[in-house]
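Continued from yesterday's entry.
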Amino acid sequence: MKVTQIFASALKSAPAIAGSSMLAAGVFALSAPANALTNPCSATIASKVQGTSACEFSPGESQDFLNSNPMTVNQVGFFSFTDWVFGGKSDNVNAKTGTWNISSLIQSNWGDVMLVFKAGNDPLTAYLVKDGVTSGKWDSPFPIQNNNFRDISHISVYYRPGEEGPGTEVPEPGSLAALAIAGGFIVSRGRKALKNA
């Protein structure tokens, strides 16, 4: 077979190969879980929480369920990690702006730390906390219209287990929960401070 015949034959079969590839890609996209992806936040939304280095949202999730296995934040893989551990939650925030403080909750064996903001049925929005930062200001990342933003219903803190520091005791899950209940994660709005429930 001449080179020109091989080339012509390949050109004739190219649309069928391309069509098969596109069909396979479409089937793969349809079979992948809708909530398996997160998207980077816009620069405006990313700047809403001080002391953070990255922001992602999950268009397929509006609830950060803790009773699912794996937890929602691990199902969607915020910041490409699927080993997040729940560290605490501040309920009933009901504000558009305030401050966050995890200084009395954070442990030396925590690696990455993430704050997850929730409001109504808006997509969960997560912020990766900068190393060494334990507090900062926040503004709602959930725009409504005309530069208005939705009130936050709650903010949760998650962490990834990191290297244990020298002489550091790793808290048992029960004592970690007690730490959170004792008010380790504080979110304030105006003059009222909300502690973990």
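--- second protein ---
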Amino acid sequence: MNNNEFQLATFAGGCFWCMVKPFEELSGIVKVESGYTGGNLEYPTYEDVYSKKTGHYEAVQVTFDPLLLSYTQLLEVFWRQIDPTNPGGQFIDLGQAYRTAIFYHNQEQKNLAERSKENLEKSKRFQNPIVTEIIPAATFYPAEEYHQGYYKKFPLRYGAYRQGSGRDMFLDEHWSQDKEKEKEQEKELKSKLTTLQYEVTQKRGTEPPFQNEYWNNVREGIYVDAISGEPLFSSQDKFDSGCGWPSFSKPLRPEEIKEKPDFSHSIKRTEVVSAKSDAHLGHVFEDGPEPTGLRYCINSAALRFIPKEVLVEEGYGSYCEMFK
């Protein structure tokens, strides 16, 4: 992949030691670097910035692949690491260097950042106003090597610092309910799906070819999302591609399908995802029959088949006309 396809995002969230790990854990991240930006001194050192006379922020610059990770997702991660209501610093660290800010690199980033900040304000998650600045990106100076990847070099010190500074306690207080909700949703989903269905739809797994429920199903009917029940494909567009998985020339309702670039396994492919449930379905290839020339190669485990005889009974009566 060409480096020209990568983009930059720059965030100040107090001590940069604590801002690297949350971003490095994301899929689609190329590099996360600690450094200084927004000040009036070229090539500042940590001592210069710590003196509070240069105007720099401690910040992290994130290099990411926009095909795999959106700027909006980065913003969501950023807000979950900071106290956006404190104009004087972050937790135990006070002063200019520890203010929070989003440094935008283009107009689109600025617009997304402003919208994200406005949405956070409207959510009333915090009692005090959101004061995080949104300002143009300035020259970014990488910090000394000692500071790079601090959480990996000194994990015990890093953990003690996060806890001792009050950051972890603050974040748990304001975001733990979201985490608990996500855990409950995941638990509920696991209870509804088989092990294979969960692996395929949630972990982007692939079931064995020629050993799945619908690869050779020739009955008439529609195929719906196994999780949301949204109609996805029709037997009228199903064909035998010889690949061992259900293959369709087109979706039943295009708006119910999302397509994403997939670079896993060192192969460039196009992933097919359910728009409603965000479940992984399979991939689409350009080796299908006319008139579309497409082959939607879909995992049976992500689908539920509704035979034409029971469409009304199952609540899909509007599709009966297709099979007359």
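The first strand starts at residue 7 and ends at 13. The domain at 202-323 is CATH 2.170.150.20 (Metal Binding Protein, Guanine Nucleotide Exchange Factor; Chain A). Will compare against the first tomorrow.
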